[in-house]
Design a protein that fits this description.
With 427 residues, this protein is an all-alpha fold. It has 14 helices and no strands. The protein has helices at 14-42, 48-75, 78-101, 107-135, 140-172, 176-193, 209-222, 224-244, 247-254, 259-309, 313-341, 347-376, 380-399, 402-426. The longest helix is centred in the middle third of the chain and has 51 residues, at 259-309. It is globular. The model is unreliable at 1-6 (pLDDT under 50).
Length: 427
């Protein structure tokens, strides 16, 4: 008896392909900017504290306004939010370039630039997270494929192509990378502006913004699957940040690498991340989404422990590639589940609450990593990080298993069907 031929996959809609093109060009611009910003800052000051303040300024908006940004995104039209935010970010960068040409380039200017761009990132990323399931009708298979392509673009363009381009452009002129990033935002804005208007959403009664913002966090905390999907990146960021804080010293003193070798290690991460995002769908098809998330948690734990135990630069490169592949797979799969099960009216707020939980753990991990490296040696942050990643494996086994994912997907389908029936009756 012959087996049934596999059904052809439904094509991703044109609207998503435009979003993908915009996100890809913007990712390249981000890679250019994020590489050039430290170089630009170091040309103005050699004070480590000031340099760290510039880096922290980009993250601080998420901690201060992340939940509020999610609430605003759920109030506003998401397509308009995206293109207007990117247009504003382009103008902001060009204003900074003009300020530099006028002789105003300074550390306070860079701190303000990083902070304001961080606010723009809150609005754009949260709106994009909520907009993609809207144009894909919350189809879980399409969401996985779409998120895999988006994540793959970020890994290649932001992590692999953008950084050397940013370094090169900086040698041409200190503010040239800022111009390149502005151009990428202009392109993204124009492409997203060309998308068709979203269908009008029912206007709910407006409540105080803080109360609306808190609803997203409450929904996340009350839903075990969503909580598990958010605890995974929180523990991961804590563990990764502990090692990232001292990785350049680890590469130099433990692996005896120079600048070229260090750059090659970072390239291993970019390659691994791209492969992980592209393979995530196939692994999910074989193991189920919950099974794939368990596998990525195990691989993350083994890779992190291997970095702390081996003295071989080659093995560290392999471990970094495996770690990045597992991380990208986790991001694609968990993001697709979240987009498929969260109600549309809460999507922005729940996405922002999850992002806040994940990012909030990063600075704590970095501080602990620096203290551990000082007291226990440069390998200690990686070994302790593996312990925390092992805990994330337990979370996957208990909170994000195939049974939990399938039950949540089925419930979301029933809720949408009931809402559609209610809407038809009302009309």
């Amino acid at each position: 008896m012959s087996s049934k031929p596999p059904q052809p996959k439904a094509p991703l809609p044109k609207a998503f392909r435009r979003v993908w093109a915009a996100a890809s060009v913007s990712s390249f611009g981000d890679g250019v900017y994020l590489t050039a910003l430290p170089l630009l800052a170091a040309s103005l000051t050699r004070d480590p504290l000031l340099l760290s303040v510039i880096s922290a300024a980009a993250l601080l908006p998420w901690l201060l306004f992340g939940l509020l940004g999610g609430a605003l995104v759920d109030r506003w039209d998401r397509r308009n939010t995206m293109w207007l935010t990117d247009a504003a970010r382009a103008l902001l960068l060009l204003a900074a370039v003009a300020g530099a040409a006028a002789g105003w380039l300074s550390v306070p200017l860079l701190i303000a630039l990083a902070f304001l761009l961080g606010i723009g990132q809150i609005l754009f990323d949260t709106a994009a997270t909520a907009y993609i399931p809207e144009i894909l009708d919350r189809d879980s298979a399409l969401l996985q494929r779409a998120n895999a392509r988006l994540r793959g673009s970020v890994d290649v363009l932001d992590g692999f192509v953008g950084p050397p381009s940013g370094s090169f452009l900086f040698t041409v002129g200190r503010t040239v990378p800022l111009v390149a990033d502005a151009v990428s935002f202009v392109f993204s804005s124009l492409v997203i502006r060309s998308l068709p208007l979203s269908a009008p959403r029912p206007r709910a009664d407006r409540r105080p913004l803080l109360k609306e913002a808190a609803e997203g966090a409450h929904y996340l905390l009350r839903t075990p699957l969503l909580l598990g999907l958010s605890l995974r990146p929180a523990l991961g960021n804590f563990a990764f940040s502990a090692g990232t804080a001292v990785f350049v010293l680890f590469a130099q003193e433990e692996l005896h690498l120079g600048a070229t070798g260090y750059g090659l290690l970072l390239s291993c991460e970019a390659v691994g991340g791209f492969l992980g995002s592209m393979l995530s769908g196939r692994i999910s098809d074989r193991l189920g989404t919950g099974g794939a998330l368990i596998l990525t948690a195990v691989l993350l734990t083994i890779a992190q422990a291997s970095i702390g135990l081996t003295h071989s630069a080659v093995l560290v490169g392999v471990a970094l590639a495996v770690r990045a592949a597992a991380l990208s797979g986790t991001i694609v799969l968990s993001g697709s589940v979240r987009q498929a099960i969260v109600p549309d009216e809460l999507m922005g707020r729940v996405a922002a609450a999850g992002r806040l939980m994940a990012l909030g753990a990063a600075p704590l991990g970095a501080l602990l990593g620096g203290w551990l490296a000082t007291t226990g040696g440069l390998r200690a942050p990686y070994l302790l990080g593996a312990v925390f990643l092992g805990a994330s494996t337990l979370i996957s086994l208990t909170m994000t298993s195939n049974r939990k994912v399938e039950a949540a997907m089925a419930k979301a389908e029933r809720d949408r069907a009931e809402a559609a029936d209610t809407s038809e009756v009302a009309t």
